[in-house]
Amino acid sequence: NDSYSSMESGRRKGLNGVLSSLSLLCVILDIQLDGVLGATHVEIEQHLEMGRKLLAAGQLAEALSHYHYAVEGDSKNYLTYYKRAAVFLAMGKSKSALPDLTRAIQLKPDFLAARLQRGNILLKQGNTQDAREDFETVLHRSPDQEEARDQLMRANKLEELQEEAHAAHHSGDYSTTITVLDRVVELSPWDPESRELRADCYIRLGDPRKAIHDLTPTTQLRNDNRAAFLKLSILHYSLGEHQESLGHVRECLKLDQDDKDCLSHYKQVKKLSKQLDSAEEHIEEARYQEAIVKYESVMRREPNVPYYTNKANERICFCLVKNKMTAKAIDICSEAHQRDPRNINILRDRAEAFILNQDYEKAVEDYQEAREFDTENNEIREGLERAQKLLKLSRKRDYYKILGVNRSANKQEIIKAYRKLAKQWHPDNFREEAKKKEAEKRFIDIASAKEVLTDPEKRQKFDSGEDPLDPESQQGGQGRPFHFNPFESGGNYHFKFNH
């Protein structure tokens, strides 16, 4: 028994000791907690004051951070939420302001300023039902509130217009729908639905640019708007703007990397974009045949979007001209011109193909047509002037025609043609006086053609529409003072041709 009493006494003492320690700890904590709460209250006031000053100075982001601290420090103060909402609105973040105004109203249901502000946001978001409730509540408590009365009328008008727009869209009258939605968007600029509906009308009426203009803000107005990002990507893709298309579909995948529709479209755009970029790199490096292969691949990959077929034909036309594949260039350029008749690049390239083919009249016609579409383009103006010079020159002497070679002929081909013709038209081959005179003239022309076309500088001048052997065509009248004739002065000249 003594042993039991001793144990019981010890247990009581231990328990009393623990209780005494706990009481002391509670007192200490209570004192500390009072200190913390007191300091927090002061800090909250400091944050509110700093927030007010920064807001007045227009430093919105800095002001917002102070209001965040104030709300965290005192989550029961309706005014703090209201003030933070004001900062969000000043920053154009109405979606973030709305929960703060709702919390302020929950904490103080008769806070009419918050109700009026929330009603204004809801109206701009196109939510007429909830906006009307807020305006009616304000008017019930304060019947003379003029702004609430005006906004209530706006909410009723907006609801009428929304119904009218949907009815017109349902009946397939897209032009009327757009006209009505113009007024809807004026009253509710933050409503994604009205913009999406108007974008749909623009798409149906064949105006993708305006559809893009309407859809772009909806990506911010609606949370997780993957559908809008995908639609924007598809619209840009249809216009041939593959880089912009890639940008939007990537935004969709940032929101959900497993989105099947966005992932499928991304792969399609990425492959095409890679081929287009690769083709242009080949062109920059003057690897025109490789570029042609890439653009042919583009047409196979995307036959349903006219832009890419047209673009591929335009660039293939350009490459064929650069490779001096004259006949094929004229065919492809003509096909491209039929598809895209106002494209000045195609007209320019076909004109150059006609020049290679020595069909200067057609070259002039193409450059003139291109000039009608773009009067300010210097490249077209210079090309037209050159084609006109070449046409004028061709009516005099065309050295390429004299030797019977293409404009793309190299020096070896020119010399070969010269030797053959010089041998054929050498005056010693003719005995009859009239024929001898004609042979002399032909021989001089053949020799002149060889002189010009085997001299890079003279050939370049001739290709630019200027005859380097004609004093009249030399600028400022400075040029060759005379033209050497091996048959004048009774000379007896003999030429040998080594084969």
From TrEMBL:
<keyword id="KW-0677">Repeat</keyword>
<keyword id="KW-1015">Disulfide bond</keyword>
<keyword id="KW-0256">Endoplasmic reticulum</keyword>
<dbReference type="GO" id="GO:0034975">
    <property type="term" value="P:protein folding in endoplasmic reticulum"/>
</dbReference>
<dbReference type="GO" id="GO:0051087">
    <property type="term" value="F:protein-folding chaperone binding"/>
</dbReference>
<protein>
    <recommendedName>
        <fullName>DnaJ homolog subfamily C member 3</fullName>
    </recommendedName>
</protein>
<dbReference type="GO" id="GO:0005783">
    <property type="term" value="C:endoplasmic reticulum"/>
</dbReference>
<feature type="region of interest" description="Disordered">
    <location>
        <begin position="455"/>
        <end position="491"/>
    </location>
</feature>
<dbReference type="Pfam" id="PF13432">
    <property type="entry name" value="TPR_16"/>
</dbReference>
<dbReference type="InterPro" id="IPR036869">
    <property type="entry name" value="J_dom_sf"/>
</dbReference>
<feature type="compositionally biased region" description="Basic and acidic residues">
    <location>
        <begin position="455"/>
        <end position="464"/>
    </location>
</feature>
<dbReference type="InterPro" id="IPR051727">
    <property type="entry name" value="DnaJ_C3_Co-chaperones"/>
</dbReference>
<feature type="repeat" description="TPR">
    <location>
        <begin position="78"/>
        <end position="111"/>
    </location>
</feature>
<dbReference type="InterPro" id="IPR019734">
    <property type="entry name" value="TPR_rpt"/>
</dbReference>
<dbReference type="Pfam" id="PF12895">
    <property type="entry name" value="ANAPC3"/>
</dbReference>
<dbReference type="GO" id="GO:0006986">
    <property type="term" value="P:response to unfolded protein"/>
</dbReference>
<feature type="repeat" description="TPR">
    <location>
        <begin position="344"/>
        <end position="377"/>
    </location>
</feature>
<feature type="domain" description="J">
    <location>
        <begin position="398"/>
        <end position="466"/>
    </location>
</feature>
<keyword id="KW-0732">Signal</keyword>
<feature type="repeat" description="TPR">
    <location>
        <begin position="112"/>
        <end position="145"/>
    </location>
</feature>
<feature type="signal peptide">
    <location>
        <begin position="1"/>
        <end position="38"/>
    </location>
</feature>
<dbReference type="Pfam" id="PF00226">
    <property type="entry name" value="DnaJ"/>
</dbReference>
<keyword id="KW-0834">Unfolded protein response</keyword>
<dbReference type="InterPro" id="IPR011990">
    <property type="entry name" value="TPR-like_helical_dom_sf"/>
</dbReference>
<dbReference type="GO" id="GO:0051787">
    <property type="term" value="F:misfolded protein binding"/>
</dbReference>
<keyword id="KW-0802">TPR repeat</keyword>
<dbReference type="InterPro" id="IPR001623">
    <property type="entry name" value="DnaJ_domain"/>
</dbReference>
